[in-house]
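agent> fetching stored inputs for the AR6 docking request
agent> found them:
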Amino acid sequence: MKSKFTGALIGSAVGDALGAPVEGYSMKKVSSVYGKDWKMISGRYTDDTEMMIGVAESLIENKGFNGEDMATRFIENYNPKRGYGPGSKEALRRISEGESWKEASKKLFGGMGSYGNGAAMRIAPVGIFYYDDIDRLRETAYKSSHITHSHELGKEGAALQAFSIALAMQGRVKKEGMLLELKEFVENEVYKEKIRKIEMFFEKVAEVDKKEVISELGSGEEAFNSVPTAIYSFIRADSFKDAVVYAVSLGGDTDTIGAMTGAISGAYYGEEAIPKEWVERLEGGKKGKRYIRWLGEELYHIKLQLMQRDGW
Ligand code: AR6
Ligand code: MG
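agent> prediction call returned; pasting tokens
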């Protein structure tokens, strides 16, 4: 279990760092950069991992969700060079200027709130910490999303990603079984339809063309155009490496789809299954790979304590 906790977080960071140098590229351009080797280029992570670290730090410090504290962590960790989306950036600016974390995100996009994938990309700590408690998982996914993403589709995408990670932690189901549970879990029709499309992909005998995956599931910055793509990338592969390589190879929002695929795959296969050369190349420093592993270990220890307290 410990290796699944650390695997989800390191897997997320590795996927992010692998996708980062080719963000926004077409499928063809990604392939011209990575060729057949898929060597990690710089190992530098982006906003996805920086925010995922904030979620983990806050869950650890509070042994659960605390919105004000989590928002503060996001603001303290914020480095403009990590490539934040405009919505997240504005929400954090508003909160740092004194608006409540419950109100700030509602003002974005003309009062609609953001449906970007920024809440789903950072959700791995919630998925691992509440892997055995669906109600808490859903509630915490919604609340942690709300700090920057108040649109229903942004929140539902984060909850779906968190639940995918939880199922991967449990390791009971993959393929059809996993899709069935995801379809029951998810409350929004847009996501149900995407999961149906994934089911249809698996019903086909021939390998589905990547262009079809992109047009049907998406490869963009919207949560509904990227979370299902990450889930599909995980399910169709038989290893951590194949899953993440496939996700990034599609092009588009490669760092985030890479991060989300890496989180689910790391939770399923465990940290040992992540290619050593990718982890070695992942950035170090104060909040680098060692720190990310430590966050996973801390979440694991706190989870154990809470389970023992509750008489497991
Ligand atoms: N109406 C129209 N467009 C929207 C709406 C909406 N309600 N919500 C989101 N978008 P954002 P993120 C579009 O800015 O989710 C970074 O590279 C809009 O084009 O909230 O935190 C990350 O690494 C908006 O700019 O950012 C992610 O890969 C975009 O969705 C990515 O950006 C993203 O929403 C998303 O980060
Ligand atoms: Mg990013």
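agent> quick read of the result: The chain has a mean pLDDT of 97.
agent> awaiting further instructions
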